[in-house]
Write a structure and sequence with these properties.
The structure holds 2 protein chains of 2 kinds.
Chain A: H1 3-15, E1 19-20, E2 34-40, E3 48-54, E4 61-64, H2 71-91, E5 96-101, E6 106-111, E7 117-119, H3 122-136, H4 149-164, E8 172-174, H5 175-180, E9 183-184, H6 189-192, H7 195-202, H8 210-216, H9 232-248, H10 252-285, H11 293-312, H12 324-348, H13 350-358, E10 362-371, E11 375-376, E12 383-384, E13 387-391, E14 403-406, E15 409-420, E16 423-429, E17 449-453
Parallel strand pairs in A: 2-7, 7-8
Antiparallel strand pairs in A: 1-9, 2-3, 3-4, 5-6, 10-13, 10-17, 11-12, 13-16, 14-15, 15-16
Helix pairs in contact in A: 2-4, 3-4, 4-11, 7-8, 7-10, 9-10, 12-13
Chain B: H1 2-19, H2 21-30, H3 40-45, H4 53-61, H5 65-71, H6 82-111, E1 120-122, H7 126-129, H8 133-145, E2 151-153, E3 157-161, E4 164-168, E5 172-176, E6 181-186, H9 198-221, E7 232-238, E8 245-251, H10 253-266, H11 269-274, H12 296-304, H13 321-327, H14 337-342, H15 349-356, H16 367-384
Parallel strand pairs in B: 1-2, 6-7
Antiparallel strand pairs in B: 2-5, 3-4, 5-6, 7-8
Helix pairs in contact in B: 2-4, 9-10, 15-16
Classes of the chains: A alpha+beta, B alpha/beta.
Amino acid sequence: MSVLVALARAQAAASGFAQPVATVRHVRLHPRPLVFVPLALAGEAHAPLAALVGEDRDAPRLLLVAQPRDRSRRLAFAAELADIVLPYLDARRGDVEIIPVDRGREIRQRYLDAPQLVVPNPAGMEFVRLLGRWLRFRRVDGEHPAPPQVPRLGCWLTFLADRAELPGSSLLVALTEALGTHWATGQSVVEDAHLASLVAWIDPPEGRTGAGAAAATEDPSVCPPAGPATDPDFDRVVLAPLIADHSRAATDAARTAVERRLADVLRAQLEPTWQSVWQALDLLRALPEAASTSERWAHDRDAFSDYAAHLDAGGAPQPRHDSAVAAAARLHRLERAAAAFERQRAYDDPMVMAEHRLTGEAFAGLVTLAAPDRVDDSGRRPVLRPRIMVRSDDPIPPAVGATLGSPARRAQKARVVSVDGADILLELSGGMGRGLSAPEGSVPAVGERVVYTTVVDAFAPSATFPPVDQTPWTHGGPPAPPSEPAAGALAVGGQG
Amino acid sequence: MAVAARQESTRQAILAAVTSPVADRLRTLRGPVAPRRHNARTIAALTANPGCDRRAVLDAAGVDKVLLAEQVGHPARFGQSPFAISRGVTFESGLKADGHRALLAAVRERLGLAEGPAAVLDLGRSEAAQLSNEERHERTRQALSRADVAVIDHPMLRVEVAGQPVYLEPDLVAARLDGQLRVVEIKSFPIIDGRADQAKVAAAAMQAAVYVLALRQLHRQLGRPAADVSADVLLVCPRDFGNQPAVAVLDTRRQVAVLSRQLARMTRIADLLDRLPEGLSFDLALDADGVSTRPAGELAGALAATSARYVPECRASCELALHCRTEARGSTGALGASVREALGGAADVATALALAEGRVKPGPHEQESARLLRHAARLRAEALA
């Protein structure tokens, strides 16, 4: 944890109220997100029990599995969910924009909109991933046929869960994570995992402290867990007897009566979380959106458009395991996205930049001298290379020769020429047009407050990976044609 | 004859353990009730937060921490859903039906062994379950020394905790199919596409390590090399979304080493006891209905005499965690070890903030962290302005 966030936690603990650790919102919020609050039956690998789902905060749909161990009833749940999720996804496929690729030699299309699925917590994301895994290989024919929309839902949920691993993506959002990157509470991350508690710290009811309101959310009989795991006492006292009643019900009327009672108790378990989710969305929405969010959302729209095209073309569901090449490519994508997201957050948000200033990766100061029209004519061609002197109070100066960037002028690079105590001499390049004199405002003027950082967009072309059938021997060689792995040939790695 | 001699030596060892001054002291701490029995889960939990003296003392004395936590007004929340329990029972009984057929087949396939008959001895069967712990432990010993028994189910194992012998009735199978004795642990969480919940796998590995340790001690007593007990534990879980078993091999060498170290530390409990006030007791003074009659304030006072080291992770394994958390309010440790570290190790929130705001003069060892905190406070104020 960074010192700055730790300090914010200490301040929150002392004041009883959550403290901001971001000044802008780094997550894209869709005007119409699809909120999904699932519950699962304890003990099973993946047995959906109930869910509240919908785009309308005042009218959530309750989905229910009265016999969660019954496969056909689970599939019926999936079919119902598909009837909500798939139309939502399709409605995002309206207008397109044309993007030139390969210097305009080709074009591709991308939807102007993309979906956003919102869940309460990372465990909710895992539920989405498992549901996707369970559904995408369902067959629509054969012995236990699934309704035709079910495998398609599985593919889409898998796509969303995969995409959520990408830092900065906003297609599938877990709210505890989103809130946690914008506010620090005066409790530990263990307690922060409970959405209601986190929301209480940030936005307590009138007249109460965040700490006091959060403490009240810890009793599961007062504030049910945000799922998908249910409260064991609820399972024992309420749920188990009802499910048993349902199994014993002899007539359709009796079954319907039990189902109505089940719906009531499960809705009561889900409702508080549903409210917390929308309250959390309100809190996030109240923050101004960070500048780079739309750039990342454009990538999300790309991914959505590509995957929609893949499915339209009858593409296969995602494999159970990535091949070596696909895994390497995925890791490469994740690393690049993580670096880009970290950089964008710093440039968009002075609070994040402050963390870099604390560790000496950035400094702020006042411009004390400026030579905006300085031309370097030592080379073959004269080039515009303005110099500025910055006086900084930050304790750690940059290294001489380092390349720096600045949030105020993102197209411009600065090179550290010399450091003399608090005085840092910088030479600027880029972002000033092609002439030999700098346009007004493109070079910081004397008296301007500037921030420079070593966190820069060091352009590196995407790595290229061999085709799957040329997987090198170091990575196991070309994989065998896909087949079901033998029973027992599985291993669990990386414990502890 | 040899068996009788061994039983006698065991009895002597137990006698020595329960009549020592340490045992007296632990009895006083516990009050006039039987000590809480350890199981693999509680022993594995000893490795969590080993720096906590309170926990070491309470566990060594076998105090009922569940009741204690309730009585001081912070009941633990470690309920298990009936659905989870019945799921576990269903999966396990499927594997063990028909002479452990499915279990053996899965394990053999994982180990690359040929099919074949294997003698299974179940010490958890009703007639064996009537026996005392000592007798069942003795049977386990006998079974291990027999060459013709390949699989022992529900063996009774023993480890020493704080100088006290503790019997473990593990829900496990010890299998000797390829020369090595292996712990086979059945769990009901799934392995999906070769992946399982890491926290659950880690907990299973730690519990299995307790069994490995106990089996090794037993092997040593039998005059066999401890290394005959493999540290590679076989974890048997449902595969994907069905009921078929998936067998994973867990290397528990690290966990075994951690546990041995922690158990060795507990034998030095005498040092911890010396630091406690004379006459300290956690006697719950249970009435005929098993309800504690000891005033909560008194018990909380007794707890305060032991030094705790609360960290948020305690909540996953210790019944007293919520009480300790209340006590630790205002400490940086209660916010998490990483927060405390980032705040330069300042013990409490008020100190950290006073240093950050320059309201106190830092001590000689705090200069560096105080400078960092002051800078951080300045940057935060600037960014929020």
